[in-house]
C-alpha cells in the first residue's frame, strides 16, 4: 500500500470514464476514495470492483462536493490527489507519482499538475489551454476546497507550492462528443457563474487566491479575473474570443478547436453576461437563473 498519498475522485454516472482513470493509477497502490452523487449506472459497482472506498452525497456544486469529500473521508496519508472522473494520468505523470516520497518534499504544501484538454477527440493545444496548471496534489489537512467559487472547483494550499511540468492529466469527456450534452451542461454552468459574478459585484464573494501576475498559476488567474470583472458586460465575450483565437493562436487548433473556442470562449461567456444583466435589472430583481 502506498503510504505517501491517496486519491479522491468525484463521480456521477461515470461508467464510461471511471475504468479508464482507475486503470491509469491502480498500479501506484494508493488508497482510492470515491464520492458519488447518486449514480444510476454501474459507477458504484466499478468503484467497488477496484476496492475503492465509496461515499454518497447529494450534489449542489463542485466546490461544496469537494469540501464534503475532504471533510468526510478519513485520509491517513500525508498527501491527497483530487481527480475528475474524466481524467487519465499520463505515463510521465504516473512515473513522477511512483517516484514520489514525502520526505523529499519538506516545506512543500501543494503541487500543480499540467492538464491536456480534449474536446470531441481533439487536443486543444492553443487558445491558452496548454499548458494549463491545476493544483491537484496537496498536504492532508492543509489543502481545502475554495468555497468562494460557485462553479469552478479550485483547491487552495497555504504555503509553498511547486509546478510539475513533466507529464500531465489527460482530460477527455467522452459524453461531450454529443454536443447537446455539452450545451446543456454549460447552460447550467452559466447560471452558476452569473449568480457568482452578481454576488461578487455586491461584495458577497471575494477571491481566495491573492491576485498576482507573477504568483502561482491560481494567483495569475485571479489577477486576470480582476481585469475580466472590470470589462463591460456584453463586450468582454468578443474581446475574450479574439484574444484566444488571435493572440493565443486558437485558430491553429483547426475547425474542431475553433468550434470549441467559440462555444467556450464566446457563446458561454455571452450567455453568462446576459444572465448577469437579468439579475441586475430591477425588473427582474426577484428572478434568479435556475441552478
Topology overview:
Layout: E1 5-11, H1 18-25, E2 32-36, H2 43-49, E3 53-56, H3 62-72, E4 79-84, E5 87-89, H4 91-98, E6 108-119, E7 122-123, E8 133-139, E9 144-145, E10 155-156, E11 160-163, E12 169-172, H5 179-201, H6 217-230, H7 236-247, H8 254-280
Parallel strand pairs: 1-2, 1-4, 2-3, 6-11, 6-12
Antiparallel strand pairs: 4-8, 5-12, 6-7, 6-8, 9-10
Helix pairs in contact: 5-8, 7-8
Question: What Rg, in angstroms, do the CA atoms define?
Answer: 19 Å
The number of distinct helices, counting runs of at least 4 residues, comes to 8
Sequence stretches where pLDDT stays below 50 over 5 or more residues: 284-291
Determine the strand fraction and express it as a percent band. 15-25%
Query: Could you tell me how far the N terminus lies from the C terminus, measured between alpha carbons in angstroms?
Result: 41 Å
* Shape type: globular
What's the main sheet like? Answer: 10 strands, mixed
Give a verbal description of the structure:
The chain is α/β, with parallel strands linked by helices and 291 residues long. The chain is built from 8 helices and 12 strands. The protein has helices at residues 18-25, 43-49, 62-72, 91-98, 179-201, 217-230, 236-247, 254-280; strands at residues 5-11, 32-36, 53-56, 79-84, 87-89, 108-119, 122-123, 133-139, 144-145, 155-156, 160-163, 169-172. Strands 1, 2, 3, 4, 5, 6, 7, 8, 11 and 12 form a 10-stranded mixed sheet that branches. β6 (108-119) and β7 form a beta hairpin. The N and C termini lie far apart (41 Å).
Amino acid at each position: 500500500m502506498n503510504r505517501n498519498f491517496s486519491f479522491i475522485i468525484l463521480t456521477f454516472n461515470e461508467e464510461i470514464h471511471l475504468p479508464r482513470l482507475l486503470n491509469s493509477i491502480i498500479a501506484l497502490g494508493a488508497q482510492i476514495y470515491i464520492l458519488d452523487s447518486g449514480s444510476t449506472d454501474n459507477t458504484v459497482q466499478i468503484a467497488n470492483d477496484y476496492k475503492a472506498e465509496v461515499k454518497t452525497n447529494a450534489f449542489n456544486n463542485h466546490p461544496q462536493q469537494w469540501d464534503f469529500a475532504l471533510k468526510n473521508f478519513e485520509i491517513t496519508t500525508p498527501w491527497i490527489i483530487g481527480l475528475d472522473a474524466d481524467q487519465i494520468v499520463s505515463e510521465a505523470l504516473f512515473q513522477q507519482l511512483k517516484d514520489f516520497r514525502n520526505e523529499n518534499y519538506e516545506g512543500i504544501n501543494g503541487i500543480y499538475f499540467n492538464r491536456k484538454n480534449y474536446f470531441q477527440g481533439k487536443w486543444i493545444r492553443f487558445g491558452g489551454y496548454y499548458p494549463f496548471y491545476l493544483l491537484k496534489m496537496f498536504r492532508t489537512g492543509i489543502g481545502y476546497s475554495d468555497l468562494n467559487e460557485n462553479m469552478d472547483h479550485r483547491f487552495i494550499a497555504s504555503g509553498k507550492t511547486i509546478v510539475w511540468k513533466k507529464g500531465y492529466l489527460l482530460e477527455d469527456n467522452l459524453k461531450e462528443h454529443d454536443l447537446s450534452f455539452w450545451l446543456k451542461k454549460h447552460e447550467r454552468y452559466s447560471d452558476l457563474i452569473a449568480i457568482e459574478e452578481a454576488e461578487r459585484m455586491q461584495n458577497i464573494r471575494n477571491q481566495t487566491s491573492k491576485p498576482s501576475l507573477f504568483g502561482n498559476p491560481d494567483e495569475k488567474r485571479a489577477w486576470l479575473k480582476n481585469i475580466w470583472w472590470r470589462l463591460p458586460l456584453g463586450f468582454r465575450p468578443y474581446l475574450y474570443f479574439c484574444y484566444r483565437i488571435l493572440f493565443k493562436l486558437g485558430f491553429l487548433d483547426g475547425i474542431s478547436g475553433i468550434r470549441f473556442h467559440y462555444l467556450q470562449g464566446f457563446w458561454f461567456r455571452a450567455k453568462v453576461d446576459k444572465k448577469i444583466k437579468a439579475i441586475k435589472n430591477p425588473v427582474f430583481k426577484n428572478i434568479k437563473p435556475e441552478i
